[in-house]
Specification:
Elements (H helix, E strand, L loop, with lengths): L1 H26 L4 E5 L8 E5 L4 E4 L6 H9 L7 E5 L5 H11 L6 E3 L8 H15 L7 E3 L6 E4 L2 E7 L2 H5 L13 E6 L2 E5 L5 H4 L4 H5 L8 E3 L11 H7 L3 E4 L12 H9 L3 E4 H4 L2 E5 L4
Length: 291
Amino acid sequence: MKSEITKVLVVITVFYAIRFFVLWTQNVNNNLSIKVLDVGQGDAILINSGNSGSMLIDGGDNWDVDWYLSKQFVFPRCNINALVVTHPHADHLYGINRILKRCKPNLVTFNDVYYSSKLSEVFLENIQHLSSDKKITNFNFAHLKSGDTFYFGKVKFIVLWPDETFLKNATYLNNINDISTVLLLDAGKFEALFTGDLSGEIFSKIDKELYKKHIDGDLEILKVPHHGSADGRNIDFYRSLSPRYCVISVGLDNRYRHPDKRQVEDLEQVGCKVVRTDISGTIEFNISGVL
């Protein structure tokens, strides 16, 4: 009996050793990867910047992200170095609260705008806990506004929205989507734009020069706002980007009937290849030679 238990333990040890090696080689490299995770009717985008680690933009409205990360990193490790919460709606925030229970990111960004919800209260409690934890010596949180920039490894991020003046008046907002953090990823000649749930009309308020000077030719990836809904339409803005791939994060047979047919037609009209998580599952882009 003792011999059989020993054999089982050896098999388990070997299994985890092999799994650790495979995951380590997957996550330690000099390539940039962007994964728009299939989390149903929500947003969650995992960016791996080579040896610099991983960033998560939003976390969906369930625990799917945590389950996905458990396959990427050997449990209980969680190598998420940065978290970005574009806005506090449940389909972006719920999974983040789960992640913060076991992950210790170096940076968390969110907009400092009051939003009444239990999820928001829990999120702020999690941030307070991380800030006061004496075992964590390198934790920071930030409120981003247009014009801000930061680096994640060799990848540069430019904040296009929200505008500081707009934020000051955000108390009177009817639509919290409109304070969504909009980030432009700039890695040499490769660029991607992450838009949260921003309304189409708000795109017209973004300083065109702010993003044009960072985009070399066409935009490679556009994360379409608000799951492809009609209120994210702004064909003039999309035409100014000339996106190659337009990614819609959306749940299969969702009750909102997203994506809206007119939004898809707009994107196709500007020459963009539309890809959807409800059809293709998790959508992954691997970019070599940019780091």
